[in-house]
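Researcher: Checking consistency across runs. Here is DUF2851 family protein again:
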Amino acid sequence: MNEKLLQFIWQFQYFNKQQLVTIDGNPIAIMQHGTINHNQGPDFLSARIKIDNTIWAGNIELHVKSSDWITHKHAADVNYNNVILHVVWQHDMAVQDAYKNNIATIELEPLVPKILLQQYQQLMETPMVVPCYHQLPVLSEMGWLAWKERLLVERLQRKSAVVLALLQQSNNHWEEVFWWQLAKNFGAKVNADHFQQMAASLPVNVLAKHKNQVIQLEALLMGQAGLLKGDFTDDYPKLLQREYRFLSAKFGLTALPKSPDFLRMRPANFPTIRLAQLAMLVYKSNHLFSKVLEIDTMVALKHLLDITANDYWHYHYVFDESTAFKPKTLGAEMMNNIIINTIVPVLFAYGMHHKEQMYKDRAIQFLTWLKPEENAITKQWKAKQVGNTNAFDSQALIELKNNYCKYKHCLSCAVGNAILRKG
């Protein structure tokens, strides 16, 4: 037994309450079991109980053993002066409050179904990454919908916290923050940090001065990313070098010391291609985030992202190495990735910051309009008949796997709760 499980049992009242008595033999009725307290002080607040014929209102404290009251020094803590009931798993000694009165205590161990404890132990001890995998789907379709809604909001709130931290760093400059996050997204997992550092080294006001010159934009991005060092054969990279030397001197720019990685990635994801596409996106749409705020349809959003790198890249993936003709469009998969991982989180964060529900709702709506993500995580859920019909679902299921199942937070999970309740 641990206190987290004990709190779970008390919160959902998973014990036999018939003929309930205190350890002194006094009949007790739980009228209101209280509200769980996530801050300092007793575990449950604003409870109401009836002992004999007296009704008590106050707080409830839970411990594995009664003596933990002494161990945790609650008698000397004013936060515990209004405790009306001590709920313990095992009673090993009587304890007193600050006024030297014995605290009414009930012992739960004899009252909790053994099968609940067995189910919990099985969840905690299984080697499966998803502890309940062999029992899925467990929830009804409506149950899964409600749970996925909560998971998605938790995911967006967590991502929004990152965005809002960057907003403070940027002195509340939303366009700057969006630029940083967009560039990071274009870098994918391998080069995400490198691209974000590149973006942070190029203020949006510098980009705005050259918004009508895609060659200069590409020179700035490639140069700051460290891709214009060395000698080239083709005229195009030589042109970018000349432009970058001039612009870096003009704005006092210093290229990143390390170049982005090319290893273990498809040519379409090479940093040269992604930076060329990013430069074209900036060229095509100045004040990108302002435009995003105005868009309320998926057609308009994808039109904004429908870009192709300039002509040199039709025949190249890297400088000085010719390939067969292939326009380097952004592609549907990358568009969806940008919407899911950049536009939606920043838009949701904007709604949170400005207390504008419209933007939060729109961010979630965008996810419902996108096809579901197909990866190892979502395939695992799908194999157990858990619905994954759009990006709303897939984002929620990724959150469930990475932030609940991975850490065995079964007590906080609707699925885990249903399994234990069934037990």
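Researcher: Does this match what you'd expect to see?
Model: One thing to look at in this run: The chain has three domains: 3-112, 114-169+340-423, 174-287+299-330.
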